[in-house]
């Protein structure tokens, strides 16, 4: 009995000592909490990730839009690119367009009227383009889509109307201007001067432009069966390309057209793009608009 009691007491003491030792300082270090499964947007790895010291931000829900491109830090300045404006000049008593590319400005209406008063370039003037607008004309107000200004009422009625049409068709290219109030009269828009457009209007190319094949010729027209024809001539007047297209509206209404023409490579030289209508009576070219250009090599 005594021996067995001694053994029992010794075993109990040994167990107690082991239990007390387990509460001491660990020798193997703290492994941290058990790892959890990664969020759905993160691919699992074979190696455990270290435990973060702060809670991670929640993963945003997926969207159908691609992520926005990264942008460089702002330097405090922003340089705007150039602006291209449309100018409407007078040719043979009708309105014809051209374009200018200038440094960007907030005062686009002032820029347009200044360029309109400056007049055509030498290449444009060679086609007969001119301007009837004097210098110094400015828009005094733009409100509710109406631009207000005064235009000198000098000259005969036809000249005054062409001058007004130049202003109206030039200013209404801007989204902020739908109508123009001239000299306190009721507002007018492009439709009030639509009769001053020739049967064929060419918006591209413009006089003096350097072009290469394939060339896209654009504009508006009101022609027989809506058919618009194009031919390209070299410096000697030889035909190097022809094509035709259909305007979006036929006879009796004006529609937009787009004709693409190509030609074999040529040396750089002066040329002409002619846009015309074929007469239904005898097949002759009528209502021709000739645009002098520079034909670039290649194509």
Terminal CA distance reads: 117 Å
Oligomer: single chain
Number of strands: 13
How many domain units?
A: 2
Biggest beta-sheet profile: 5 strands, mixed
Please report which band the strand proportion falls in: under 5%, 5-15%, 15-25%, 25-35%, 35-45% or over 45%.
Answer: 25-35%
Helix and strand content put the structural class at: alpha+beta
Mean pLDDT score, rounded?
81
Topology pattern, helix = H, strand = E: HEEHHEEHEEEEEEEEE
Number of helices: 4
Tell me roughly what share of residues is in helical segments.
Answer: 10-25%
Strand order of the largest sheet: 7-13-12-9-10
Rounded to an integer in angstroms, the radius of gyration calculated over CA atoms is 39 Å
Uncertain residue ranges: 1-77
Could you list some keywords that capture this structure?
three-stranded mixed β-sheet; disordered N terminus; 17% helix; 2 domains; Immunoglobulin-like; five-stranded mixed β-sheet; 299 residues; 29% strand; 13 strands
Topology (elements, then pairings):
Blueprint: H1 2-22, E1 82-91, E2 94-103, H2 108-118, H3 122-126, E3 141-143, E4 146-149, H4 157-171, E5 179-182, E6 200-204, E7 210-211, E8 215-221, E9 227-233, E10 239-246, E11 255-261, E12 269-278, E13 285-295
Parallel strand pairs: 4-5, 7-13
Antiparallel strand pairs: 1-2, 3-4, 6-8, 8-11, 9-10, 9-12, 12-13
């Amino acid at each position: 009995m005594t021996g067995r009691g001694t053994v029992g007491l010794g075993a109990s003491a040994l167990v107690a000592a082991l239990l007390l030792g387990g509460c001491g300082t660990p020798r193997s270090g703290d492994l941290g909490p058990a790892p959890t499964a990664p969020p759905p947007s993160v691919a699992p790895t074979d190696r455990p990730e270290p435990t973060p010291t702060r809670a991670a931000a929640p993963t945003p829900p997926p969207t159908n839009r691609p992520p926005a491109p990264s942008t460089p830090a702002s330097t405090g300045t922003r340089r705007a690119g150039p602006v291209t404006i449309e100018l409407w000049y007078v040719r043979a008593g009708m309105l014809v367009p051209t374009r200018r590319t200038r440094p960007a400005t907030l005062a686009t209406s002032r820029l347009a009227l200044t360029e309109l008063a400056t007049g055509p370039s030498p290449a444009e003037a060679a086609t007969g383009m001119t301007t009837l607008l004097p210098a110094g004309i400015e828009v005094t107000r733009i409100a509710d889509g109406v631009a207000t200004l005064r235009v000198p009422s000098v000259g005969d009625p036809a000249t005054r109307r062409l001058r007004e049409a130049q202003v109206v068709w030039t200013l209404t290219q801007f989204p902020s201007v739908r109508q123009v109030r001239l000299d306190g009269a009721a507002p007018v828009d492009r439709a009030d001067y639509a009769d001053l457009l020739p049967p064929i209007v060419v918006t591209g190319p413009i006089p003096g432009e350097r072009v290469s094949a394939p060339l896209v010729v654009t504009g508006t027209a009101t022609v027989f069966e809506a058919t618009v024809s194009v031919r390209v001539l070299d410096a000697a007047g030889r035909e190097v390309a022809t094509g035709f297209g259909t305007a979006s509206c036929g006879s009796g209404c004006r529609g937009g057209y787009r004709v693409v023409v190509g030609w074999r490579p040529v040396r750089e030289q002066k040329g002409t793009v002619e846009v015309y209508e074929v007469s239904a009576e005898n097949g002759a070219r009528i209502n021709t608009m000739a645009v002098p250009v520079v034909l670039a090599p290649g194509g």
